[in-house]
């Protein structure tokens, strides 16, 4: 019997455990530590599991205010609501597990947050134990492939938790990539009208002249920004800077001598023009990356999106105690620069290190190697796609376990 693929636009046929007619139910638990990456990753995963794989998804999240920044239609006053077919529960950890205790087929504990004890007890009592996954933070380090999909038995219950490691190399869980992402990017890049519309609605201005370099800047506070702003001001060709309102905005305000650099602000000094943008939903953030020539990104999810945008980018890694983040930065650089000639590779490494607190960011060097960096960005996106999309890798693993 041959399988007939669904017609384009038809929702995916619901996946079901053990071949039953009901879709796979999945609960994702997300405790927001700080910033937007925890919920950013969970929400993106939830939307893919529901929209592309037909799973029935609930997201338990403890901070609806952080969530609302990247999902403006969320109502922060509601204990339970449904968006894009996904049930969202305002999670009051550690005891709360929704008004009625229902254990899903697949339980995803994001970034080692602790599941409510009552929920774990119910998991153990379920006639068929759920698949329990601990979705880890992304790291490009080699050890990740060895630990991906390793089980860890529970000390008290007859349950086992499996570690699911995102990564940039073979043998890892990969990173999230929606099925329609490349097509959406290609359509944006091919349409002058779409880009002009984006510029008008996001900045209030028409697209910049062709000789301008457009840079998006999403970053934590860093002393490296002051000298970089001066270099951009003194650049031989125009620089247009797009800055989502956030932690770096204070540095922009200081540089331009303004009281703040809130969304809707514009300023010019020398050859540098900057626009402060409102924080958008996640698809809107992708468009910002596509509209730019160079993307400064941070944390985890925007770092991944910059790779799919296939433009040269600079990563501000989430800083950890004892500089534990630095080997992770170098591991990502090793993947990303692998095929670059030594001079371009050195320039990129020095720039990333400087942006992360070690050395002086040299824009002229970065710009000199731009054509090679751009070529490599496209090559790397193709290489990374070989690892497979994380949601697809996760659903394949789940299906193999729920048989
Ligand atoms: O906000 P972050 O710094 O999150 C970080 C990291 O995830 C880090 O690994 C984690 O340990 C820490 O939080 C607690 O950066 P990140 O991961 O890029 O998340 C930002 C999210 O916000 C991402 O999903 C993109 C989204 N976004 C929008 O939706 N709209 C916007 O306008 C912008 C600027 C971002």
Automatic annotation (TrEMBL):
Reactions mediated catalytically: dTDP-beta-L-rhamnose + L-arginyl-[protein] = N(omega)-(alpha-L-rhamnosyl)-L-arginyl-[protein] + dTDP + H(+)
Listed GO MF terms: translation elongation factor activity
UniProt keyword list: Elongation factor, Glycosyltransferase, Protein biosynthesis, Transferase
The keyword Glycosyltransferase appears for this protein: yes
InterPro entries tied to this protein: EarP
Function, as annotated: Protein-arginine rhamnosyltransferase that catalyzes the transfer of a single rhamnose to elongation factor P (EF-P) on 'Lys-32', a modification required for EF-P-dependent rescue of polyproline stalled ribosomes.
Family, as annotated: Belongs to the glycosyltransferase 104 family.
Protein name: Protein-arginine rhamnosyltransferase
Gene: earP
């Amino acid at each position: 019997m041959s399988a007939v693929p669904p017609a384009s636009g038809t929702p995916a046929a619901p996946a079901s455990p053990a071949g039953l007619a009901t879709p796979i139910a999945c609960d994702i638990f997300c405790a927001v530590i700080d910033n937007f990456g925890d919920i950013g990753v969970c929400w993106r995963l939830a939307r893919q599991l529901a929209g592309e794989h037909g799973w029935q998804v609930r997201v338990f999240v403890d901070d609806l205010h952080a969530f609302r920044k990247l999902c403006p239609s969320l109502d922060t006053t509601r204990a339970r609501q449904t968006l894009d077919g996904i049930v969202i529960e305002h999670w009051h950890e550690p005891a709360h597990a929704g008004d009625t205790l229902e254990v899903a087929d697949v339980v995803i504990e994001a970034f080692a947050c602790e599941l409510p004890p009552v929920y774990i007890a119910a998991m153990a009592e379920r006639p068929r134990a759920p698949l329990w996954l601990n979705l880890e933070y992304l790291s490009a380090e080699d050890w990740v492939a060895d630990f991906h999909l390793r089980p860890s038995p529970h000390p008290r219950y007859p349950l086992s938790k499996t570690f699911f490691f995102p990564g940039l190399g073979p043998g890892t869980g990969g990173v999230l990539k929606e099925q329609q992402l490349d097509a959406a990017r290609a359509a944006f890049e091919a349409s002058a009208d779409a880009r002009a519309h984006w510029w008008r609605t996001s900045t209030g201005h028409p697209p910049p002249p062709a000789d301008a370099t457009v840079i998006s800047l999403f970053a934590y506070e860093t002393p490296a920004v002051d000298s970089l702003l001066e270099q951009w001001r003194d650049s031989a060709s125009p620089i247009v800077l797009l800055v989502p309102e956030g932690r770096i905005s204070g540095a922009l305000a200081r540089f331009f001598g303004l009281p703040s650099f809130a969304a809707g602000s514009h300023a010019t000094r020398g050859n540098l023009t900057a626009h402060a943008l409102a924080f958008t939903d996640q698809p809107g953030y992708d468009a910002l990356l596509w509209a730019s020539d160079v993307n400064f990104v941070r944390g985890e999810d925007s770092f991944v999106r910059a790779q799919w945008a296939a433009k040269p980018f600079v990563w501000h890694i989430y800083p950890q105690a004892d500089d534990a983040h630095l080997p992770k930065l170098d591991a990502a650089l090793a993947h990303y620069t692998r095929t670059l000639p030594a001079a371009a590779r050195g320039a990129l490494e020095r720039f990333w290190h400087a942006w992360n607190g070690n050395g002086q960011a040299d824009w002229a060097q970065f710009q000199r190697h731009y054509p090679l960096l751009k070529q490599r960005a496209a090559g790397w996106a193709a290489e990374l796609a070989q690892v497979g999309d994380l949601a697809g890798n996760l659903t394949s693993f789940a299906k193999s376990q729920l048989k």
